[in-house]
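From the shared-data thread, chain only:
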Amino acid sequence: MGDLRGGGQRLVGGVRADAGELAEQRVYLRPDQTAAVLNAGQVDAWAVWATYAVAEIGGGKAHFVADGAAIGSDNYSLNAVRTGFAEQHPEVVRALYDYLHEASAREKKDPAAYLNVFTDVGPTAVTGKAKEVQTGFTAQGGTVDPIGPEDIARFEAVAAFYAEQKVTKEKVDVAAHLLDVEKLT
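Structure, as tokens:
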């Protein structure tokens, strides 16, 4: 079973524990290696996020066993800013957040409009079944929103799991590293 160090580590580790350790061996992969290794038959399953799964699923080379929600995934897409920059330019950080929030909501409503922005042919174009898969992922996805108390609780649980599994040396104090964008001017 292939997975990505970090998010895949947590998901695959949890699934393996729930399934009574079905997998014989875990292989750590970079995201860009996952499809090639799966297609070469070197792993039979993998935990990866949508960006790296769309072509394989769209091409009929892979099938979902479960999505993140089905296995209790707490994987998030986060946006970060350097502390010094946020302290010096809070208005810029707030403007960026506002843009990301509004644009992600528009993309979720009309995901096809955000595919193939630069090209609709060639090796980077998303077409056919892969386009259907990607628009489905995006339509079901989230939007950029402020981190709330329930998110912090889940982040803390993930931080504890990472420390237990020795992904991190110690439990990270998540709350100490959060910025409340709603308080920026």
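The longest helix spans residues 90-109.
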